Amino acid sequence: MSMRKLALYGALLLLTVAAPFLFPAYQTQLATLWLMIIVALTWDMTGGQMGYNSLGNIFFYGTGMYVGAVITITLYFPLAEYTDASRSETFTFTPEMYFTGMVLGTLGAGLFCALSAYAIGPLFFGLRGPYFAIGTLGLAIAAGEIVSNIDILGGGQGISMPVYGGDFEVFKKIIYYVFAAMGVVLIVFLSWFYQTRFGKAINAIRDDEEKAEAMGIHTLRYKLVTWAISAFFVGMAGSISAFQLIHFEPLETAYQTINLGIFMVVCVLLGGKGTLWGPVIGAILFHVFKEVTWNYLLGWQWVALGALIVVIVVFFQDGLMGWLRHRKPEWFGIRVESREARASA
């Protein structure tokens, strides 16, 4: 790695650490930005790198919320009593109980989602193209409806998470750094993962699955493992979001197919599918766009979002990274000979 790249990555890491102190009024928005980066990168693992466009990754996000909440609560209190809407008892979490529950709940959520993805994967990977997308969307919608009818999980009213007992400003910094650490780990992991033989194999599945199978690649195994890794990170992100939101409910918050379920796809399309930094850049640009329109164009924000999607589809079909690669190939290490050089050759 060149010194220039090392300096750039060092500066970005320093900015990540200093961001809550540089912009103290926007700590929640910065934490949400890292959430968008995480879900965009995980969606691109299957949608961009493997060619299986999912509309149901929000299933793992919502499931991670509930698994994290259930583990945190049941470590210390009966779940049925805690989620009973008519209860009069107050359940208090000490700082040690709170952070123990957060750590174990988040890890448990990631593992549960990964195992779930591996278990249900054979059913959904029998579908191709739009059928896979619609099938996974149906999974997320069905999960939200099912959970909203389970009383022990709070039903349609959802679950109230334990409240951090310390300074709320400190709490916002904690949530930001947890999301940021998870995002940095994911970026580092994927930068290595895509260069491995496994990464090349899922690219082969994207390019031509039949030829990949003919070459001896066990495509189903690669698809299951990739989806499981993606679900692991999304599930952990969902668990941390539960602590950040304090209260969440199934349809509008956990399994929000219309909002976050669509946003993660738009982030990848904006930045560029099948690249490492495309989803990151797309998530940053989309999050800024969303915050501006949701604050200054309230009532018209969905119109603005629809217009953005149309612009992406019409003018940037390969995303910003693809557009830049075409316009400035030398930035990506691609050598392009001039017309004069080709003519003389």
Automatic annotation (TrEMBL):
Location in the cell: Cell membrane
InterPro entries attached to this UniProt entry: ABC_transp_permease, LivM-like
Transmembrane segments: 28-46, 58-77, 97-120, 132-154, 174-194, 224-246, 258-289, 296-316
Protein name according to UniProt: Branched-chain amino acid transport system permease protein
Transmembrane in keyword set: yes
Molecular functions per Gene Ontology: branched-chain amino acid transmembrane transporter activity
Keyword Membrane: yes
Keywords noted in UniProt: Cell membrane, Membrane, Transmembrane, Transmembrane helix
GO cellular component: plasma membrane
Membrane topology, from the record: Multi-pass membrane protein
